[in-house]
Amino acid sequence: MAIIVTEKGLPVIVQGITGHQGSFHASQMKAFGTNIVGGVTPGKGGTNINGIPVFDSVKDAVKETGAKASVVFVPAPYAPDAVIEAIDSGIKIIVIITEHIPFHDMTKLKLYAKLMGAKLVGPNGPGITSVGIAKLGIMPNSIFKPGPIGVVSRSGTLTYEIVNTISEAGLGETTVIGIGGDQVVGTTMQEAVRMFQQDESTKAIVVVGEIGGTAEEETAEIIRKEVSKPVIAFIAGRYAPPGKRMGHAGAIITGNKGTAQSKINAFQEAGVKVASRPSEIPVLIRQKLQSL
Amino acid sequence: MVDLLEYEGKSIFKEYGIPVPEFAVVSDEKDIPDFNEKMVIKAQVPTGGRGKRGGVRIVNNREEAIKAMKEIKNIDFDGYRAEKFILEKAYNIRKELYISVTLDRSAEMPVVLASAEGGVDINSVPQEKIYKKPINPFVGVTEYSKRELSKFLNLTAEQAQEMGKILSGLYNIYDRLDASLAEINPLGLTDNGLIALDSKITVEDDALFRHKDIPIRYFGLDEIELEAKKKGLSFVKLEGDIGIIANGAGLNMATIDLIAQAGGKPANFFDLGGTDDPEKVIQAIELASKVTNKVLFINIFGGVTRCDTVARGVVQAINELKPKFKLVVRIRGANEEEGRKILLENKIESMLNLDEAVERVVKLAGE
C-alpha cells in the first residue's frame, strides 16, 4: 500500500499537456508506469501528444477515459480555474505542479476541494510518487526503490537528494509526497504524517521541513500524540537570515517566528531524530528501525 | 511583496469606506498651502519607526511645515529619503487601537487581529490582549464577529457601528487587492470617532498580474538582489565569501547549511530553478561572480534541470567570463553521466558525493 496514490493502474490525465513541461512530464510519468489516459488543453481537443489523446475539457476527458486523477501544469493565472474544472468533473486526486498561484486562490480552492471531496497535492511542489504504483508529478524516475520509508517534504530537489540517499543506502520508499513550498498547500505535512502512520506498508517516516510557518511544530505535536512509527526529520534553512524569502513563498522567517531552531526543538521534544545533513538520514533510520 | 506607501494606502482606505484624516500629498514647499491650525507632516518612506527618527512632526502654520519638510528631507531612513509627504489635520487622540487582516498560515484562512493596545508593534502585545478571528473567505465578515470585536475593544454602540464598517472595508481590501496584509496602526479613537491614522497594505507578488495599477517596486533589496529579481531569479545576499548556485529552494538552503556547518561562509542563496537553457546557467554564474572571487559551488540535483544542460552552461561561462574564483561542481540526477563527460572534456572536475563536495569547497575557501 501507500498513501493518496494507492491504486495501481489509476487513470490519470494531464491538464496543460500541450505545454513544454506538460508534454515532457506526461511521457516521463508514462515511462514510470503511470496510467496516463489523456490530456486537457482547451482548444486542442482531438489532437494527441506522443500518442496520448488531448481533450478540450476535463469533462470530455473523464467521459472518454474514466480518469480519476489529474496532474496540473497550467500556468498560474489559469491554474485555479483548471483545478475547479477538475473538481467539478469529479476528479478526486489533483496534483498541482504550477508555481506562483496566489495564496488567496489556494485558501478558496482548498475549501472548495474539501467541500467536494477532492484531495489536492501542491501547488509549487514536485507531486507524489507511490513506488511500484504510480508517479503523479515531476520527480526523476531513477531515484526510487521499493521499501518501507514514507517521505513528506516541502521541497523539490532536496527531496530528490534525500530520496536518492535513502535508496542508495539500500532502504527504499512507499510513497514520497512533495507538499509544495507555498504558504497554503493542498495536503499538509500534518495530514501526510497521519496518513503514513495509518499506512501498513510504511515502517518509518522521513519529514523534510524548512523555515517559515508552523507546519513542523504542529507536525511534531501530532507525532508526540498519535504516531508510533519512527520519524526522522531534516530542516533546511538553519543559516537563513530573517525577513528574507528563501525561494519558496512559504520559506520566510517573520520576526522571530518560523526559525529552523524552533522546528528542530519541536521535533526533538517529540522524540524525533533531526539529521544535520541528508547523508545522515539513512543512518538514523537504520538505528531507529533496529531499536524497535 | 509590494508595500504601498501611507498615502497610497489611505487613498484605498477612503475608497473602501474607512475614515481617514483629510490629507494632502506634497513634495515641494510650493505645494504647501497657508493654514493656521494644528497639522501633522509625515515622511512617506517604506521603513518602520520613522516617527522615532523625526519623520513625523506637528506644525501650526505654513512656515513651520516648510521648515519641517526641509529637515525631514535630510534624514536617512535606512537608505531612503523622503520625497513625498502627507500633510493632514492633527487629531486629539484619546486612544490608539490596532486592527489588521492577514493570512493565518496555520488556519489557512484570512484572520482579523485587533487590540486596544495600538500604536506599537503588534508582536510586542501579549496574546491575551489580541482579538483573533479567522474569516472564512466563502462567508466573509459576519455581523456577530463585528459585535464580538467591538465588545473585546470596549467600544460604545456608536463606535461599534464605525468599527463594523472598518472591519468590512479592511477585509474587502485584503480580498480584492490580494493583500498579504491590510493594517491600520494606529486606529485613532478621537473626538470625531474612529479614524485611520496610518496605513499598511502589502500586496503579494504572485497576484500582481491581476493588479496592473499597483506600482511594482521593491524596498530593502540590495543592488544584486534587485538585478536578480528583475531577471526573475531568486537571489538573497549573505555575508560570506563562498558563492552558491543550486537548483531548488530547499536544496539551496540545505547547501548553505552544510557549508556553514563545515565552517565556511556562504555569500548567497541562489535558486537556478528548473531550466533546460544553458544561457540561464551562464547568467547565473555571471551574477554569482559579483558576490565571490574565492570559490563558487554549483550543486545540482537534476530533474527538470538536466545535468548536461548545466555542464554546457558552466563550460561556456568559464570560457567567456574567465572568473577569478575556484569552481566546485557537484551534479547528480538526470543526464549526470553526460554532464560529467562534458565537464571532464573541458578539464572541469565534477563531484558526486555532496558531503565530499562541501568539504572541498570549504577547504578551497580557506586557502
Salient structural properties:
heterodimer; A: 292 residues; alpha/beta; Rossmann fold; 2 domains; seven-stranded mixed beta sheet; 34% helix; 23% strand; globular; B: 367 residues; alpha+beta; Dna Ligase, domain 1; D-amino Acid Aminotransferase, Chain A, domain 1; 3 domains; seven-stranded antiparallel beta sheet; four-stranded antiparallel beta sheet; 26% strand; elongated
Succession of helices and strands of chain A: EHEEEHEHEHEEEEHEHEHEHEH
Largest sheet of chain A: 7 strands, mixed
CATH class of the largest domain in chain A: Alpha Beta
The Rg value of chain B, from CA coordinates, equals 26 Å
Indicate how many domains the architecture of chain A comprises: 2
Low-confidence stretches of chain B: none
Please count the helical segments of chain A. 9
- Helical amount among residues of chain A, as a percent range? 25-40%
Strand order of the largest sheet of chain A: 3-4-2-1-5-6-7
The ordered string of helix (H) and strand (E) elements of chain B is EHEEEHEEEEHHEEEHEEHEHEHEHEH
The tally of beta strands of chain A, per DSSP, is 14
According to CATH, the fold-level topology of the largest domain in chain A is Rossmann fold
Strand content of chain A: 15-25%
Give me the CATH architecture of the largest domain in chain A, please.
3-Layer(aba) Sandwich
Shape of chain B: elongated
Largest interface: A-B, 59 and 50 residues
Fold and architecture overview:
The complex is a heterodimer of chains A (292) and B (367). Chain A contains 9 helices and 14 strands. By secondary structure, chain A is of the alpha/beta class. In chain A, helix 7 (215-226) links the parallel strand 12 (204-210) and strand 13. Chain A starts with 10 loop residues before the first strand and ends with a helix. The mean pLDDT of chain A is 96. In chain B, helix 3 packs across helix 4 (157-176), helix 7 crosses helix 8 (307-321) and helix 8 runs parallel beside helix 9. Chains A and B meet through helix 4 and helix 5 of A and helix 6 of B.
